[in-house]
Amino acid sequence: MGKAESFQDLSIQPIREGQELWRWLYMELRAAILDGRLKPGSRIPSSRALAQQYSLSRGTVTAAFDQLRSEGYIGAQTGAGSFIANPLPDESVAMTPAVSPPATPQSTATLSNRGRFTTEGIRLLPASHSLGKAFRSYEPAIDLFPVDLWSRVAGRVLRRAPRSSYGQGDALGYLPLRRAIAEYVGAARGVRCHAGQIIVTSGAQQALDLIFRLLLDPDDEVWIEDPGYPGAHYALRAAGARAVPVPVDAEGLDVASASALSPNAKLAYVTPSNQFPIGITMSQARREALLTWAAREGSWIIEDEYDAEYRYSGSPVASLRSLDSAGAVIYVGTFTKMLFNSLRLGFVVLPERVVDAFAAARSVCDRHPPTLDQAILAEFILEGYFGHHVRRMRQIYSERMSVLAELGERHLKGALRIVPAVSGMRTVAWIESGESDLAITQLARSHGLELAALSEFTVTHKHPPGLIMGFAGCTPAELRRGVELLATVMHTSVTVPTRSQT
C-alpha cells in the first residue's frame, strides 16, 4: 500500500468571494493533479483527514472527490483508499503519431466550378458586436426585445419539456409551433392553411434555398425584382437557375415587362407587401396579373413577406397567398425581423402536393429545426407575447421613421430626400445632387455609418441614385447623430465612377 500524498505544500489558492466551497476544492485539486503537484498513482488522504486539514465539512470534501472521480482524475481500490489516476484521463485519450508523416507536396484540391460560381461576390453580414448603429437596416430593435419575458418562458418550457424533446425532431417542425403559425398567418395575413402545410426553416434564407433547389432545374428562368433582395439571387445561383431581372415601378414588379423578357419563366420571386429595398406595395392590378400568369403557365410564385407586419399607414394589404386559388403561391415568413436575428426560425406555407418532398429535403439539409427553440417560440406566441411585441414595435418603428424624416428635412434638405416608409424597417432616400450613391456610401461607411447604396441592389435596370437607410433598430438619439454626420459627409463628398453591376 503506497503512502498517501502530502497535501501540505500544494499552494492552494484562497477561496474567491461567492464561490462554493466544494467547487473551490475541486478546482484546486484538479489543478494540482494536472500540473504534477499531485503525482499520478499516488494515494490521497481520506475525506475525513482532508476535511480536518482545511477545516471543511466531510460533505464538502466528498462532493469535490465525487466530481474528480466522475471525470476520471481519481479512482478507488477496495481497502486501499483513493488514488490519483494513472494515466490521467487527458493523457489516455491523447493521440500521438506512431511515425512521422511522410513529406508530401501541398494539396492542389480546390473548389469546383460550381462552388466558385455559387460563392462569387457574396458579401457576408458581420456579426453583431454593437447595437443600433445608424443606419443599419437588417436588425430590429434588439435592445427593446423583452429578454426577461423570453427567459421566463424558456425556463418554464425547459423545465417541463418531456425527455422526447431532446431526441429526434419532426422534419416539418414542432407541431404546436406550426399550429400557432397557421393561426397567426390566417388572422394577420389572410393565409388559409393548416399545420400540415407548414414547414419550419432556419430563417427565410434557408427557405429560399430549399424552394429553389426543389422547384428549379439548371438553366430554368426566374423573374426577380430589380432592384431586389441579393439573398434570393445568391440562392438562385446555387440552384443553377437563371435570374431574369425585371424592372420595378410605382406598382411593383412589372408583369408585362417580365412576360416579354421571359414568357416561359418557371418561377417568380417577389416581395409584394414591402418591395425590397425600395418599399413599394404591389398594386392589386399587378397582383392579379401575376396570379393569372402563374396559373396560365403552370409556374410558381414565391411570396417573401419578411417584415409585412410593420405597416404604418393605410389599410392592411392582403397577401398574394390569400388571393391564390390555383395553388401556385408559396408563402415565406421569418421571425428574425419580428423578434431577433439569432433566433434563426422561419417558415414556408406550401401547397399540400409538395409537402412530403419538402420534408424530405429539409431532412437532408439538417434533419430538423431545433425542437426546444421551437417550443419556446410556440409558447411565446400562444401566450400572446408575440402579438403584443409586434404591436409595440410597430408603434415604435413608426415613431422612429417620423424622427428620421423630420431630421432629414432639417439637415439634408436639397441634398437628400428621405421618403417616409409606409411599412418595414428601412426606407429609400433619393440623392438630389445627382452624386454617385456608391461614392456617398463608401465615404459614409468610413465614418461608421451603415448605409447601403441602391445601386448595390441593382442588376440591370437603373434607378436614380439613392441610399437605403434603416431606422427600426436605431434610437432617436442615434438617428440624430447619424443624420448630422451624414450631412457633413454629403457636403464633403466627391463623385467617383459607379462600379458596373453584374
Protein described:
The chain is an alpha/beta fold. The protein folds into three domains: 72 residues, Arc Repressor Mutant, subunit A (Orthogonal Bundle); 242 residues, Type I PLP-dependent aspartate aminotransferase-like (Major domain) (Aspartate Aminotransferase, domain 2), CATH 3.40.640.10; 99 residues, Alpha-Beta Complex (Aspartate Aminotransferase, domain 1), CATH 3.90.1150. The chain has 17 helices and 15 strands. The protein has an eight-stranded mixed β-sheet with strand order 4-11-10-9-8-5-6-7, with helices on both faces. The protein has a four-stranded antiparallel β-sheet with strand order 12-13-15-14. Strands 1-3-2 form a three-stranded antiparallel β-sheet. The longest helix has 27 residues. The C terminus is likely disordered.
* N- to C-terminal distance: 79 Å
What does the average pLDDT come to? 87
Strand fraction equals 5-15%
Q: Which structural class is indicated by helix and strand composition?
A: alpha/beta
DSSP summary, beta strand count: 15
So, the CATH homologous superfamily of the largest domain?
A: Type I PLP-dependent aspartate aminotransferase-like (Major domain)
Describe the protein's topology.
Elements: H1 21-34, E1 43-44, H2 47-54, H3 58-70, E2 74-77, E3 81-84, H4 89-92, H5 113-119, H6 147-160, H7 175-189, E4 198-201, H8 203-215, E5 221-226, H9 230-239, E6 242-249, E7 252-253, H10 255-261, E8 267-270, H11 284-297, E9 300-304, H12 320-323, E10 329-334, E11 346-349, H13 355-366, H14 371-382, H15 385-411, E12 416-418, E13 426-431, H16 437-446, E14 452-453, E15 466-470, H17 476-492
Parallel strand pairs: 5-6, 5-8, 8-9, 9-10
Antiparallel strand pairs: 1-3, 2-3, 4-11, 6-7, 10-11, 12-13, 13-15, 14-15
